Queue: 3 jobs
Job 1
Amino acid sequence: METINLTEIGARVRARRKGLGWTQEHLAERMDVSSQMISCLERGVKSIQIDNLVRLSRALNISTDYILTGFQPDDNPDRLAERIARLRPEHRKVVDALVACCLQER
């Protein structure tokens, strides 16, 4: 069985939170927990309860698998949507046309 590394979990949470431009306080508010809980989690000094893991996953829009193991499936539609959203408008039109073409082939 794989060992869960609290420090690595904390680093993934911190990286995602900072990537979203959020403070620990903002994330805590979104989860309805204390900012101290977020701080302890990010420093890897405290594990997370299952219900808080689910709330954290939803707040950060990442999978619980990624939080716990660092594994992010390549076929995650939310991740793909985030990447497409960062494209310039002309490139989004190309992706949209490609998706439309693929859907017609069904």
Note: The first helix runs from residue 6 to 19.
Job 2
Amino acid sequence: MNYKIDVKQWGRFFSVPCSVVDDYILLSDGDFVKVLLCILCSNSNIISVENLSKQAGVSEEKAEDAIIHWSTLGVISAQTEDGKALDPQPQIHNNQVSASVGTVESISIPKSPTDAKTRVKYSTREIAEKIDANDELKGLFDAMQTVLKRIINGTEMAAILNLYEYYNYSAASILMIAEFCVKIGKNRIAYIEKVAKSWFEQGICTYSEVEAEIVRQEAYQSYEKSIMRVFGVQNKLSKRQQEYVSQWNSMGFSVEMLEIAYDICMNNTNKLSFPYINKILENWVKKNIRTPKQYEKDDTSYKNNMKQTVSGEKKDTSYDLNELQQYLLNYNAVKDGGNKN
């Protein structure tokens, strides 16, 4: 669909360089664009980072990164109030690095997951020298921009470098973690860094360990989504529901067995109840019922017992209907209004 746009003159206008749209808008952080618009709209050539962050609704660190970003790309020029030219953060663009080179201080690499507690801070010159001297690192930054589909800023480069040097992740491992995060809809460097640090603390450090963890998590996500389809759940699972699903996965129950448990729950209660289904599964664990065939055998035994006329005879089945009904009644009686399903 096409739209006819009429820009009405509500007061003053300001100009935006065409290169912002033609060359950089698809690759630039949205917050950076907001900061640039605030800069271009300003009546003064003296910009306060504090005021700029408030006007654009971003952190001061983000505002400063934006100034460096657009200055590096040549959209604006920036210098300190005393006339000193801004020392820009290095940006990878068309496989080129442009930055000053200075002295690099040594860092301490953690020997084990428990040793890693913080982030090493890198100056602009340190980042520039490391990129210039390391083709693998240069390739990593270039590949990260391809994965993220945008230019990465200096703060983000420092975070990646931290994972590479301080946490000792290989470039291939970092890129694989980034690809996994983007695949699940998390494309911020801060999230990628958080995942990498969390895995490091769990002892997931090498390329093969990272690869195995990604395979495991992808399998679990597929498991969770399949259960949601079987249960007819449209919205995101609550934290408690996620805990149930994780528990069922740890128990080793297939989606097919979850579907059987779901059908029993709906037939007996006429509504979806995660605690009720969990009770069924716990009873199955006690009786070592893990497959549909084992369930069918137990269910057949139950039906045969139902036909017997011996008074008071125990019904040997994988779940006790009366017990489950009483469990659900007790559960509803103690609910305090919170969603425990």
Note: Residues 87-109, 333-340 have pLDDT under 50 and may be disordered.
Job 3
Amino acid sequence: MSAIELITKLREMTGAGIKDCNNALKEANNNIETAVKILREKGIASAVKRADRVAKQGVVVAQLSEDKKQGVLVELDCETDFVARTDKFKELADSLASFVMKSATQDNILEQKFDDTRTVQDVIKEAIGTIGENIVLKRTAKFTTSGEIASYIHMNNSLGVLVNFEAPADVVASEAFKNLEKEIAMQIAAVNPLYITRDQVPQEKLEEEKAIYVKQLQEEGKPANIIEKIVLGKLNKFYSQICLIEQPYMREEKDSIKTVIEKVSKDIVVKEFARFKIGE
């Protein structure tokens, strides 16, 4: 057989990738049975077979640079809670978070070089073979700021939040700010806002919501001039549910998050956030 035919046959037998098959054949001096054994020993063949199994457990990990000017959030999924709680799986998640921190881009993260010989996908494949479950790097986030990045991880690593705060250096250095960033991260974890401010809500989402309210009120027999006022009130309530700045503060609902932030400084801006929860 030609080299191409050998690789094709080995791929059909194991489901492994072209590169893995080529390397295994070289190591096996083109003996296809030995190459199959090599792939199985390395866990690559079994990794492919597991790739269609559902990864619905896992961990969320965060890492911050020493100066808190950069931060990353990573969700790594597996099949069972048992594996998610193992040190080996958590170490893999931490190593991937460290890689994301150093990476210049979030594009095609799986294809990026993890080290001199392996891509990120190669590292995950090796872990699949060792651990024996499907493993998926589900999502990553990376923020850079002139202010400070904050993170919050729920105690069982099933939920994590990363927040980018823009604020002057003297504000960032204050004790009040340190407490505020922790509270805002926990607010996002607990209440799950979809946006920061109302101007970020897509127009089509607003129109859809308004149409629902109008139809409800028409069916209740409300006159048109009254409907408009009621819809406005309902939309304000809608904003307070999905927009972080307008949400009631979880510890004191009479205050909005905007009020809580401004009590520390009006110069603080929540620039962006990421919230990862296993299973969502």
Note: The chain has a mean pLDDT of 90.
